[in-house]
Amino acid sequence: MTTAQEIGNELVALCRQGRNMEAIEKLYSPAIESVEALAHPQIGQVQKGLDSVKGKNRWWVDNHQIHKAEASGPFLNGDRFIVHFTYDVTPKQTGQRMTMSETGLYQVQNGKIVKEEFFYTMCQ
Asked: What is the spatial order of strands in the sheet that 64-77 belongs to?
């Protein structure tokens, strides 16, 4: 069985390489639940299942120019871990470049990520 530490390490490594979709395919449970801090008009607040989570990630990439993305961690606690992300992005809708600091809390069961919850702040 893969541990939360191993999954967290691999998630961070893949995200640092910009291989987020590969991380979802490899590390997430088919029954994944993803919860954003706020509901977005186009994607909602909660996604359930791999297809829905992949769709949310495609929406993010399609709607933002990503200048830089960083990931640090994982920070472990039993079957859960936290990863800190920092993004330098320009939303295509507004054209206003911003820095976004986001923390993801991940829960692991049976060697797969079953839940992710995001907490974030945006700075100008």
From this structure: 44-48, 28-40, 112-123, 98-109, 80-91, 64-77
